[in-house]
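ping. complex inputs:
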Amino acid sequence: NAGVMQNPRHLVRRRGQEARLRCSPMKGHSHVYWYRQLPEEGLKFMVYLQKENIIDESGMPKERFSAEFPKEGPSILRIQQVVRGDSAAYFCASSPRQGAVVQPQHFGDGTRLSIL
Amino acid sequence: TQLLEQSPQFLSIQEGENLTVYCNSSSVFSSLQWYRQEPGEGPVLLVTVVTGGEVKKLKRLTFQFGDARKDSSLHITAAQPGDTGLYLCAGLKAAGNKLTFGGGTRVLVKP
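pong. complex structure:
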């Protein structure tokens, strides 16, 4: 009964490098969400995706950040040219297809990104 | 400015005491979810409340959703050290799927 799987758990990058964070949703879940938790702050929504579609990216920084959820494989959150301020815990959540009944979001254990 | 305000931010009590955590907003949510997060891990869903005035119980935890669906509370009876953790409320608006989180309440239950 695998939950939401995120990897890597910890990622260290130098300023200017690229960071790729991966998320495999729970089995049967077709909706993926990415949240960011900055040190001493709460979780903030970044982006909501379904397979091959970005539904809501209102929380994504305008530059350097992108996300995808391909037909096959995990969802990827990509951060280009990382800066120190990108250091945070990045959480992925998934839910089944939303219908008349509210479907809760289940979270992975996150990727802790540290920028040197 | 937090759309969802949690209070208190930190709570330290002795084992056996009761505690209540509040989650307040000026906005209406279609549902509200409570999570608990341990250090180094992701939030774990405790409960989802949907209907105004709804009360749900999970062993010693009681969750209530306000009549107007703008606020919620979590009450823990006879707290145990195992209840120590960060409690997060998160609201879902009717028009979207993104969760809006409160700032969290850190609970410490001392033996």
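The longest strand of chain A covers residues 43-50.
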